[in-house]
Amino acid sequence: MSIEKGISMKKHSVREKKKKINAIISAAEKIFFEKGFHRATIEEIAALAGMAKGTIYNYFSSKSELCLAICHTIMRRLKNRFLRISESKQTGLVCLLELIDDNYRYFKRYPKHFQVIQTFAMHRNECDSSREMFREMQNEIDAINSIFVQVIKEGQKDGSISKRYGAEILAATLWGNVTGILIRQPIVTLKKEKNFAFLPDDIQATVRLLFSTALPAG
Predict the structure, then answer these.
(1) Cystine design at 211: which of 62, 123, 205, 215 (Cβ 3.0–4.6 Å)?
(2) End-to-end CA distance of the chain, in Å?
(3) Domain spanning 63-214, CATH class
(4) Neighbours of 175 (CB within 10 A)
(5) Residue 101: pLDDT over 60
């Protein structure tokens, strides 16, 4: 066998593997969203993906790892959305508000995505943290946090955000509070208010509280 043919076959094998993995994740997403994580079965996922049950286990050891794969896709989408916003030519404060706004609007449009993230949080200990997919998921989370930290630092540099608190502390507090509100209450009707467009009342109140102690008034 020539070297060129060997390389071609290897590339084909990689493409086929990726194709199968994507088909499995797509099927798992549909079953999880339709039936919920606990009621879904590997057999149903395999049937929808058009594969044998054993084939699923060649790539994923459990439903929890499938949940992880779906979460990884969701977090990557969020990261890319946030990156586009963070690269806009605006003050750090305005950019930060848009990041919060976009996070809420995404989960309002795709509420089941937020539910599957909650499910993964409850079952993450069932996943092998040494697996590459787990590390990639954590990398996406770290990247999102870094975006918030960088935007806050830009705001502190341009004067739109106070330097009273460190960017890392403020980012963690802000992200934690906003996420906590989404967990606590259902996605509600969007409202529009000056300086806090399209944020629901509870998130507006939380941002106001954080900003009143950490950011310039007005």
Answers:
(1) 215
(2) 71
(3) mainly alpha
(4) 18
(5) yes
